[in-house]
Specification:
By secondary structure, the protein is mainly β. Helix content is 10%, strand content 51%.
Length: 116
Amino acid sequence: MSSMTERRLARRYDLTLPVSIRFSAEKLVVRHVGKTRDISTKGLYFVIERELEAGSALDLTLTLPGEITHGSDVFVRAQGKVVRVEPRPEEGEQRMGVAAVIERYDIVRGDGARPH
């Protein structure tokens, strides 16, 4: 019971932000682009057009636009793990909703240069 209450203490933001995802298991550096639906300091929920497995390690880059940060764009680089995957049809297209926990993150302020 207490773990549920603890989870709720993390502030949640309903934000739709572009997220770029790299799967640590893939040898090729292919970035998949998705959209977040909900973010907290502990994790995030995003929607992507590809199958994922629970337990997959992820390398994420979120972009917080200047409108939110009241300045330049801010990039959040995070490492996390997929905890839940569910089919989520949107606009008639099949997509996957993915819940992931964030294990660590770094904030990179944009100064016109995008991180690679």
